[in-house]
């Protein structure tokens, strides 16, 4: 069961990617939308994972 859903989308104006983060995973509207600053969808997703991993490690 997914708790969140990530969708990387391309900004039409800049050509850069941003993330929409949905919680719960089946929500119709994103909980958070990032600024378009990533050159690829994979870079946006990897940055999100790195941020979550860093914050989780700080809680230990």
TrEMBL record:
Origin superkingdom: Bacteria
Protein's name in the database: Uncharacterized protein
């Amino acid at each position: 069961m997914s708790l969140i859903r990530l969708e990387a989308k391309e900004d039409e104006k800049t050509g850069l990617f941003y993330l929409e983060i949905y919680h719960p995973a089946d929500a119709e509207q994103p909980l958070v939308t990032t600024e378009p600053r990533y050159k690829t969808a994979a870079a946006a997703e990897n940055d999100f994972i790195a941020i979550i991993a860093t914050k989780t490690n700080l809680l230990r």
